[in-house]
Amino acid sequence: xxxxxxxxxxxxxxxxxxxxxxxxxxxxxxxxxxxxxxxxxxxxxxxxxxxxxxxxxxxxxxxxxxxxxxxxxxxxxxxxxxxxxxxxxxxxxxxxxxxxxxxxxxxxxxxxxxxxxxxxxxxxxxxxx
Length: 129
Known about the structure:
Elements: H1 13-22, H2 29-43, H3 50-65, E1 85-86, E2 89-90, H4 100-116
Antiparallel strand pairs: 1-2
């Protein structure tokens, strides 16, 4: 969509926010990230459903924790399973371990959430993409 193309201004930001907040999309790293990415940019346009977005973000952090490996650090792309296929190419054995793809997506999501929640003690820099 427009956001992925770098066009962050939309006249329908309220519809995008409603859609994100009404969607259960937590099966893997990209789905988790995409919702937060959209909410981050739309919430910068207005305060529409601000409290709902904040509550959603706190809930999302709990979901993110389900993908995290406390013992060794890092996130897996899928719950309890590293990403094994990327654009039809086998990249891992899909073991119950963290992977770079999951870790990047979830850490980037946490950075966006920290900005949405105004967590000033966390100073993540948002990548320009």
